[in-house]
Specification:
Helices cover 37% and strands 22% of the residues. The protein is α/β, with parallel strands linked by helices and 186 residues long. The chain has a single domain, classed as Peptidyl-tRNA hydrolase (Rossmann fold). It has a seven-stranded mixed sheet, sandwiched between helices. The mean pLDDT is 95.
Length: 186
């Protein structure tokens, strides 16, 4: 089984914000694959299905960003999975808006959702898709920026990025993550 996790914050007020781009990718996959996110357990909202012969669990932690690792580790423990069986999708201030970068390991880079995930899994070695959301201007705080919504121009670009990230996830179901990295990091 493979687990695809989108990070974000629960609640309508956070819909369509930069910080919830991971949720958007999971929602895209849910719609595309016909896997409803209709189960509430493990401190998250999830759905399970089979895609291209691979059993898949889609997860949106409902713990708020800073505690995402609680939900992720609960799912891995319950299903007896290893960190290599997951991909975590999240916003990244250090990438230009609209860029995606796949990695197999690394530090949290200041991202609290990833800090929590590393702390709860006890390792930095798990697959990730980082989605660039750009940096705030000097007059805008980081928290206001990531909790803010995209401009109409950015929204059009981010819709394409969500689709590309979903493609990378689908590709991972039948290929090694390193292969997927090499293809999508070009």
């Amino acid at each position: 089984m493979k687990v695809i996790i989108g990070l974000g914050n629960p609640g309508k007020q956070f819909d369509q914000t930069r910080h919830n781009i991971g949720f958007e990718v999971v929602d895209e996959l849910s719609s595309k694959w016909g896997i409803p996110l209709d189960q509430a357990k493990h401190k998250g909202l999830f759905g399970m299905g089979t895609v291209n012969g691979e059993k898949v669990l889609l997860l949106k932690p409902m713990t708020y960003m800073n505690l995402s690792g609680e939900s992720i580790s609960a799912v891995l423990n319950f299903y007896k999975l290893a960190p290599k069986d997951i991909v975590v999708i999240y916003d990244d201030l250090d990438l230009p808006s609209g860029k995606i970068r796949l990695r197999q390991k690394g530090s949290a880079g200041g991202h609290n959702g990833i800090k929590s995930t590393i702390a709860h899994l006890g390792t930095q070695e798990f697959n990730r898709i980082r989605i660039g959301v750009g940096r705030p201007s000097e007059k805008n705080s980081v928290s206001n920026f990531v909790l803010g919504k995209f401009s109409p121009e950015e929204r059009a670009e981010m819709s394409k990025v969500v689709e590309r990230s979903a493609e990378a996830c689908e590709n991972w179901l039948s290929n090694d993550f390193l292969q997927v990295m090499n293809q999508f990091n070009k």
